[in-house]
Amino acid sequence: MAFFGGPPKTAPAMESQTEHERRESGDIPDLPxxxxxxxxxxxxxxxxxxxxxxxxxxxxxxxxxxxxxGYVIVTPxxxxxGPVEADVIxxxxxxxxxxxxxxxxQLERTGTINGDVTTxxxxxxxxxxxxxxxTMVPEQPSIPHVENLEPSQxxxxxxxxxx
Length: 163
Prior knowledge:
By secondary structure, the protein is of the alpha/beta class. The chain has a domain at 37-136. Helices cover 22% and strands 41% of the residues. The chain is built from two helices and 14 strands; from the N terminus they run H-E-E-E-E-E-E-E-E-E-E-E-E-E-E-H. The protein has helices spanning 10-25, 143-162, and strands spanning 37-40, 45-47, 50-58, 61-63, 66-74, 79-81, 84-91, 94-96, 99-107, 112-114, 117-119, 121-124, 129-131, 134-136. The strands form two sheets. Strands 1, 3, 5, 7, 9, 11, 12 and 14 form an eight-stranded parallel beta sheet that branches. A six-stranded parallel beta sheet has the order 2-4-6-8-10-13, with no helix packed on it. It is globular. The model is unreliable at 9-17, 145-153 and 155-163 (pLDDT under 50).
């Protein structure tokens, strides 16, 4: 078949239908739910605050605070100048600022962190550079359980004060 004389337009629909049938038959495991992904391109400079939820892959430069519920990935070409807070942080590039991770930090062999790290779990690959202090914190209990207790306590206390 020639490159320019491709199949009719109905062929891709048949291929995806076949793929869907294979997934249903159990040959391919179910994929996790899609997450929102953001890529800051290699030649891009972002100044300001990054806040939100999902996965942010930094290939360029971020100047400012990064605060995410999710993942921050700093690739070998990536640079962050400011504090970073996220559930999981992977550093293969450069970070100049303090890191707070609610789950895990991985400093890869090409990565450099100039700042303090606070996390539950920390892996430094051979060659990774940390210029700062590390504080290992204990794992916190599940957040929904804690949130359910907090609202009831103030309301009980406020009733006691009114009596």
